């Protein structure tokens, strides 16, 4: 087939996102939540990890990114919506790739803005101590923040596709992210280091003492996301719509 | 030309056969009514045609090609499956813009189909504010968006007001007159009779009939003649002399079964019977359909009994 199905499918998926107010709201909430919670944590001060105190709010910003990824997919599972989408783009692999791209790219862009804003806000609240982290570390933190948020949004999108339910995906992910990680706290050097959020957030720290470094940590998160996306793709291709 | 070809199509959901080895062809240039009781397999067949469900066996093709092989399917096939498919928080126009973008259909077409379906004034309102009839019109607008050669509509008259029903009737006739292939599923008999040229009737996953509308009715319901007179004795005498089977009804009118006004009129006139009324009683699609499904139901019941120990 000479005519590509992906670019028009991506265009359609992007229109779907920008024409739904809650989706735009969720995107806007990513930097807002991140910066607000970072600022709160920064005021508490005394954190020995300057970099992470600037990016602490990502723990909350990611909830918005997850909500965005989830709702973008769950909208397809309302009455007959998926049938209409797949009737328009019958190549399900192309359709799913377009859907994920339309979720991932905006989150990546918003994630960069979030990282930069958190960095600026962090530098302001932390003051002269900000110099305790090197410019290279700040760049890594900012880029890592964008990649991490994108991976979490895609993880949510993949999981929602597998479960065919946004409520189902959120009721797994949100308690998992908010509770499990906090309960485990700063305990390092165990299997919990390999959970998608804990692994991916190493990139937001100046120093780490677990098995995973910043980039290997993101790679582990990416594996989780890849698994969720692969399972979602399988579900989309095999199932009757 | 684009015709729909369904060949030996079977779909099983677990142990249940929703569609059981059906074969039929829908040619262009006429409106084909797709009839059958709920659960007969109409919607399943439409989903199989659109590649949404995968057949257990058999094929469903459009102009010889499976739907999923079409790169820009909406330009070939327009379908209305579920009027509730549009997201309620999106505007009607945005809903159509999404579909247009996915198949590289110019934005101009979006405004054209909104106009055609009478939705222009509501185009920038959210779908949540639409009535059932407006959602139905939006679904029809979506089906017409790509100017397709094949149009598949599942219960298009659902929720439409009387003007809407007249409108859809005209629309279907026009689409067929333009040479398109039009398949319309419905459970409303009088409605279907008003627009269909041809019928495919499903029952329990099988094709019960695939025939022209007129033939379908004539084969099952015999036309009759309705007569009222002031002289019943003379009428009965005249009719029985010619071997006609006349029945008198409690309210005083008579029906002559298996007869035509062309024969009965001259006959009673020659006999000098005073007439108050003489009219043809044509069979209706509803009568024919019920006659067909009664036979089918009887067959099913008998089969059921045979299975019992």
TrEMBL record, chain A:
The chain crosses the membrane at residues 24-44, 50-75, 96-126, 138-159, 166-185, 215-236. It comes from the Bacteria. The keyword RNA-binding does not apply. Keywords: Membrane, Transmembrane, Transmembrane helix. This is ABC transporter.
UniProtKB/TrEMBL annotation, chain B:
Pfam families: ABC_tran (PF00005). Residues 4-229 form the ABC transporter domain. The keyword Transport applies. Keywords: ATP-binding, Nucleotide-binding, Transport. InterPro entries: AAA+_ATPase, ABC_transporter-like_ATP-bd, ABC_transporter-like_CS, P-loop_NTPase. GO terms for molecular function: ATP binding; ATP hydrolysis activity. PROSITE patterns: ABC_TRANSPORTER_1 (PS00211), ABC_TRANSPORTER_2 (PS50893). Belongs to the ABC transporter superfamily. This is ABC transporter ATP-binding protein.
